[in-house]
Design a protein that fits this description.
The protein is built from 33 helices and 27 strands. The chain is of the alpha/beta class and about 900 residues long. The chain has a 7-stranded mixed sheet, with helices on both faces. It is elongated, with a radius of gyration of 37 Å. Bound molecules: adenosine-5'-triphosphate (ATP). InterPro entries: DNA_mismatch_repair_MutS, DNA_mismatch_repair_MutS-lik_N, DNA_mismatch_repair_MutS/MSH, DNA_mismatch_repair_MutS_C, DNA_mismatch_repair_MutS_clamp, DNA_mismatch_repair_MutS_core, DNA_mismatch_repair_MutS_N, DNA_mismatch_repair_MutS_sf.
Length: about 900
Amino acid sequence: MAGEVWYVFVMSGQNAQKTAPADQKVTPMMAQYIEIKTANPDSLLFYRMGDFYELFFEDAEIASQSLGITLTKRGKHQGDDIPMCGVPVHAADDYLQKLIAKGHRVSVCEQTEDPAEAKKRGSKSVVRRDVVRLVTPGTLTEERLLDAGTNNYLMALTRLKGGSLSGDAVFGLAWIDMSTGSFQLSETDQQRLAADLAQVSPRELILADSLLQESDLRLVAEQSGGSLSPVPRAFFDSSTASDRLAHYFGVKTLDGFGTFSRAELSAAAGILSYIERTQLGERPPLDPPMREAGAGRMLIDPATRANLELARTLSGERQGSLLATIDRTVTGGGSRLLASRLAGPLVNVDAIHHRHDSVAFFLTNEIKREGLRQTLKGAPDMARALSRIALNRGGPRDILSVAQGLAAARAVLDQTRNGDIPAEIAAARASLEQAPHELGTQLVAAIKEEPPLLKRDGGFVATGYNSDLDELRSLRDESRKVIAKLQAEYSEELGLRSLKIKHNNVLGWFIEAPTAQTEKLTADPARFIHRQTMAGAMRFTTTELADLESKIASAGERALAIELEIFDQLGQAIIETGDAIKAAAHGLSILDVSAALAKLAQEENYSRPVIDDSRAFEIKGGRHPVVELALRKTGGESFVANDANLGPDASEEIGHIWLITGPNMAGKSTFLRQNALIAVLAQMGSFVPALEAHIGVVDRLFSRVGAADDLARGRSTFMVEMVETAAILNQAGDRSLVILDEIGRGTATFDGLSIAWATIEHLHEVNKSRALFATHYHELTALSAKLDRLSNATVSVKEWNGDVIFLHEIVPGAADRSYGIQVAKLAGLPAMVVERSKQVLGQLEEQDRRSPAESLIDELPLFANITTKPPGGAADPAKPNPVSEALTELAPDDMTPREALEALYQLKTLQAGGDG
Ligand SMILES: Nc1ncnc2c1ncn2[C@@H]1O[C@H](COP(=O)(O)OP(=O)(O)OP(=O)(O)O)[C@@H](O)[C@H]1O
């Protein structure tokens, strides 16, 4: 059997042309390897051999290339060398990290018995081995494999066809951070799906392999950025999902956790099946699933998220993103919470107010804040340590982390005690109060201050914690002294100054004396038992020495056994109070985030925004936090603050659109983005970089800024631009905020201008969103005469000696020109080209004066008139349509089936006549 299996495996490699004879000789170890490899086909197999994990065949080739380690060979198979490479067990984490980062999955196969046991079964028997864990990007828990400030989400996506009331498909989402135990569920639709995936930004996305076959869904899944793990459809079986969930959490019914939709349950079942498969028996300590109402968050689609550089810059780095600019947290948990708040700003006014209250509290209570931050700086990542302990991957340092985390929780309670405490802070404090503080005190007493990483060798329990352990340790540690004393006694008794007691691994402890002086020892063979004769020396032992030796050895062993038992007891006590520990860890994160945002507000002069359910969007003295910081760092000019007001006038209920024209490099894009960022910051619960801000909650944020090629997906710059614009025009509503920067730029002038024109009309008439629209098409400014909620704004510049000076000030009105040529001159375009451009421009402007674009305004009907026509432009509304006239005449209730059929034929004839 093993031979056949082997054959299948090798067929996927270079040796495909070779066939394996039925009587193929496979060494027992190789047979075992092949069996295990076949059972774990989609991953690289780390096969434990002594102090190394070895990889063979294709796995070895892939790993050696990915890790830059030497490819060697071990034995032959079917006449060919077997490629092999290996990584030392003690450094395995680093190699795992590299492989996982490159998108691989790794099965870790351990020896599950002592080699001595295997030998008992016969000299040729192989040590039993088994895969103990499948390491995938979304199931990591090791500190070294994780980024402290980033959640590591595993996400499951499932679809129920016709799951909604309207019969459309609904999607269930479940996501888990195994390193902290958080577990969330939500339901969404096709339109929101990409935005919801982007909000979570999973490291690994699991979905039924059948879904991955659909190209649209595959695209959305790929866009999430997570590594894709297809699994069988059966993982998501929604009919058994409730039972599987209840079973996992050891409850009879899920009622206590809340109500979940079928799609959510199906996603939850999928993710739990995957965890069971990858963790092989270990159960990560998960929180009960929480329902994340998708509608409770501002919708930000992936393109907008990327354009606004919320968590990463367009080039993929954290540095330079909004998140990096505002992050003043001092703990890993705080940093993760801040990132998830930024990824999903709220839309509930009360919830936003609560967060602002917390920031305000720490802004006024500076001493409390700084004391708190000082304490938190030393607090380790309790949530992640807890997870490792529960997964049986914990070490002494994880226990110490919990101990120190609980100590920090106690200190923080004292530091935030008095004063008028806002609701969110009070709730966080309550969770700290309920933490298992007695256990904390016990842990502090139990673990040394700087324990070793692994529990394996002991040495982590503090002195004074367990008296038996202390005794055994001193026996072991005192051994040298006891031996030295014995040596002194023997040498005195025998009068032999050169007698020594030594130790080696073969003999253990022994007495050694120069051969010439061993007379007295050999004379008493019953006492001095001869062990070995060397050149010039002889070795002996005594019952006394042997007794001492076994005492020392067993003291070490017994000490280790006691330490491991203590470790298990403490671990168990931690797991039992896991929920309270996790709640306290979350409480600390909330305090960290609130204090950090207050610190930010103070340092950067942010102010508290007014948030309500209106359609207001009034920003006074707004700034772009990232550009402002960049300018400050370069020490050049300072950032010019600007106002924006897109709110409705007193008599209206719908927001406004600003059309911004202005020279290149003046600051249009910066202005657009800063307003979007201010909305995001306000609704995530932060203060904002402005003197004042009044924002009626934004439910969806859309931004189309700049143009980026997406050639990897076969879309041109212009196609990307149009796909994103289409998404905006199809989805934005009157509570949305839309930022459009130079729409139409990617095509010929007239096409671009026409698209921009129609887009503005659509936003104004149909979407009715608050919007900022930057453009170089000056012709568009004429639209403000026709569209009453459209105003023109421009960025002011000064011209001086033919050069242009940017003032970066947004003022009402339209730009008279682009100053493109002046900017080109600044950029160092050759003087000849600059001059020639001026000439060409002069001629073009002359032509334009003869047929100005303003006339378009009167010639073209308003956009609204067009939308009232049926799609396809079938009929002229001025001419009566015979089909609709006939339809109006019909009275279905008064007709027999036969008459109805005849009427249908008649209608068809009429239509045919009309088409002709
Ligand atoms: N309000 C401001 N205060 C100070 N400097 C600013 C301000 N806004 C923008 N700048 C500076 O001007 C540069 C250009 O800004 P931005 O890219 O927003 O211009 P733009 O008008 O969109 O240009 P283009 O039309 O060429 O795309 C920025 O990188 C920044 O250094």
